[in-house]
Amino acid sequence: MPTTEMLFLSFVGGIFGASLGGLWAFCLCGLITIVGCGLVLAGGSDFLLLQVGLGPIFGPQAGGFLAGVVACSYAAGLKGNHPGGKGAGKDIISPLIGTSWDVLVVGGLGSVICVLLIALLGKIPVVRETDVLAFGIILVSFVSRFLFQKEGFFGKSPTRKEFGLLGTNNYGISWIPWMAPFPRLIVLGFGVGGLSGGIAKFSSAALAPLLASGAISAGAAGTVPVIFCWGVCAVMLTALQLGQGNALKVPITHGMAVVGAVGFLSSGSIVFAAFCGILGALAQELCARLFYNHGNDHIDPPAAGISLSVFILNILFKPEWLNLSALF
Predict the structure, then answer these.
(1) Which of 105, 176, 219, 220 could form a disulfide with 46 if both were Cys (CB 3.0 to 4.6 A apart)?
(2) How far is the C-alpha of 143 from the C-alpha of 113, rounded, in Å?
(3) Which residues, 6 or more positions from 267, have their beta carbon under 8 angstroms from its beta carbon?
(4) Domain tally, the chain
């Protein structure tokens, strides 16, 4: 379990992340993670990667994303002082520093709750086969929806009745409409999955001698191949944060990157990793249609897609489960 000191750092990091807003905090988290990966690849400390960029201090489950999402839902749904107004629960782009002190505190508390929840999820059989970090983000986001938006899992927007749960009104209510058409999504997932699988392959090879010599920890050696491309994709979202018009229409691919990397590490095949990228792309679009499109706050489709896809891959490939890795 996290120490009291780490929980305090998670709280204050959550306050900072909430003040930035969810997306700015996530971009910063991605940058910290990339720098942390670079330090590990150079044989240096894993503190920045494992305790800050992906850990309780400023990971996406803490101040590096979730705190901003929870604070956004609270400010828009309950407090009524979100910069975008009472119906702006999906606006994770706007900084929340102009709201009120309690909005920031709610972000810090959400961060602490999620860090504790993830530690618990990692001890539960079967549940721990998913990406518990991503799963924890989704669970806490649902709790904030129930409390602050008074909505259920699928939202309560009239669009659900008008267009159906999986309907998009020709992408008019889609999460990322410029990325949602299936042919585009499948090709993008294939490319990102293959790219991430290749990075996983060559970073694993570069880290092997460092691990053998004791220069880096096993945790760092196992994390960098999975997360490096994720960090790159997270930093790329600064274009979404800052862009105007067509300039902001970048793809959101960090979920595909994680699934592609896990696919390579499960099979040893870059080609299979590319197909796993498609799995990640389709999973996040499915979760967007189920949980995001008809709701009034942000339930993160990439985190939900990662949770679902990694669970499927672990059940299929881990030796203690179906062990399909033996076929590769």
Answers:
(1) 220
(2) 11
(3) 273, 317, 325, 328
(4) 1
